[in-house]
Amino acid sequence: MALLTSRGERISYAAGDTGFNLVWQSIELYLFFYYVEVLRLPLPVASSIFLIGAVVDWLADPTIGIVADRLSSRLPMRAWVLIGGPAVGLALALAFTDPGLHDPGLTLYVITGHVVLRLCYSLGNIPYAALTTRMSDIRAEHVVLTGLRMQGAALGGIIAALVYALVPTGGDDGARRFLTGAIVLGLLAQPCFLVTALGVRERLRPPLDTVGASPLAQLREFGVLFRQSPALRRLTVTIIASGLSITMVTKGILFLFKQIGHADLGYRAAIVPAVMLLVSVPGWTRLGGRLGRVPTLRVAIVLQLAALALAWACAGSLPLVIVTLSLAILAGCGMSLMFWALVPEIIAELEQRRHAGCAARVFALATTARKLGQALAPPAMAASLMLASDHSILPGLVAGACCAAAAGFLYCPVERAAGSALADHDPPAGRAKD
């Protein structure tokens, strides 16, 4: 298969997600735990902060997508990575800084730090995600780029988990561990962003943006995108539900191992999602090429639900919990790879139909959907911790996997057959119309 991008360029692209995941793994795996166990925020307050962050994402991500699309002829997408990189590194350190305050000052500080961290992350990450469609217009290459990007993210996750595991606690309930880890990771991310900015070539010129410049016209454009593409609507629902389940599994690692009496093992187990992503992407990519992306997505969803149900049934056995949790994490890797691999062809279909650029907008919508699923995870976990008879996290994890299964089977994404248009034809036989 002939590809437009060189190996060095693809590695440069993946380096960007290594940098972003050094930051995001800190949010995904550790920040909720830090709020609850170190800062001692009540569970409802800590989970609500993540919902506030999601609201910020819903506003910021589309806005950044709009601006990036409109300025793409003058400011390349990769330049945004250099703009957002230093800012997100500083914001990460501030988010893990204990100000020594009491409520309401502590809660206000945490909310402010969380919002700033989200804004800085989106500033670089939304244009970075859209780079895929500017590097190549070959569908198979989009899958390759997505897979390498996820392996780069996995490498970042491994580094993040190792840093937090190796930093001494300092005898202060982990506060020093988290702050030191955040500072180190924020610094390590900067060379990764530089490699992407210098090593990626945006060889495809985006179509002229014909949307009016007024904010109202720009906001209406998102509604137009949803109306024009049933595939986008379906994929958005799948990303939200799958993102909820995947996030609950990763955020639940520290809580689960603490509940079964192996809290220290939880910090070591936190490296498993990143390692699993790094080693499993080639296998999931091959399976997706053989079965198709949507069938492979369904395989991963079923595997995750079955693994979590078994973990709940065998919660008293540490070896079985480790095995089933690893299988659930493996399934989450396949779910993520498949739904992200569907986004570029939706962009290609929409830009071909509309004769206008929308890559950053669509990736902003997809990223916002992913973050919505992530934001819903802490409240769902808090509900499980508070309402379950044994205050276990596992009932919540199973419920999240059921949500992903409902979306993946009852309102499944649409995968385009070769040579067809995504939204111009009815779904294949046996697949319900939108």
From TrEMBL:
The chain crosses the membrane at residues 12-35, 41-59, 79-96, 108-131, 143-166, 178-200, 235-257, 269-287, 299-318, 324-343. Gene3D superfamilies: MFS general substrate transporter like domains. Pfam families: MFS_2 (PF13347). One of its GO terms (biological process) is carbohydrate transport. GO terms for molecular function: symporter activity. InterPro entries: MFS_2 (IPR039672), MFS_trans_sf (IPR036259). GO terms for cellular component: plasma membrane. Keywords: Membrane, Transmembrane, Transmembrane helix. Belongs to the sodium:galactoside symporter (TC 2.A.2) family. PANTHER family: MAJOR FACILITATOR SUPERFAMILY (MFS) PROFILE DOMAIN-CONTAINING PROTEIN, MAJOR FACILITATOR SUPERFAMILY DOMAIN-CONTAINING PROTEIN. This is MFS transporter.
